[in-house]
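Data availability (excerpt). The following record was deposited with the supplementary files.
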Amino acid sequence: MAEIKVLSAGAVQSMVEALGREFERASGTTLNLIFNTAGSLRDRVKSGEAADLVILSESIIASLDKSGMFVPGSIINLGRTVTGVAVREGAPVPDISTPAAFKQALLKAKTVAYTDPKAGGSGGIMFAAMLERLGIAEAVNKKAVLGKRGSEVAASIAEGRAEIGTTFISEVLPVKGVKVIGPLPGELHTANTYTAAIPAGSASRAAARALLRALTNPATRARWTAAGLEPAF
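Predicted structure:
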């Protein structure tokens, strides 16, 4: 029985898991799914770790492909997700309608959750840069609740360890007890596209291509949208 090793960023985890299970049942192929931040997986791939399919941010895939790392023609955009603001289900909803209002919401909150930039998460890196631009990095970081991944950020809000937080909407939706109250407002709006590619060293190229077809089946578009991801196929 064939096995496909997949290294995937967490932003698309819910759909890769769901469609992956269906693919396993239909094909008899076993999937070894490994999820982490895009930055940490990039480093693993660059260090030579073998995989049959890699799903990372579009910019990281493009950078890795400069050295001819992937099978020509195998690079496919899967979906795009935006950074959202979340609070605990049932908690008061702060005003985040404008960049100025969101800045005040962050300053007023007792605790703020986001992905630790040092863990390599795309959302955390972008949010840290945004805090610097707003001039509130020091104030927010004093009360930051950092997660290694977006799912941990969502969990910290659901469990009441953080009052407000930001991460990709696709990472919040699978977590019970937390509510997305909107995307980052105005010019603070950020989004990321996630892209799949088959490494040139894959020993299971045909099976990896079959999995790619399953992930980008037009019949699944509505499911990607429901999972907080705008399908790119």
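Summary of structural features: The radius of gyration is 18 Å.
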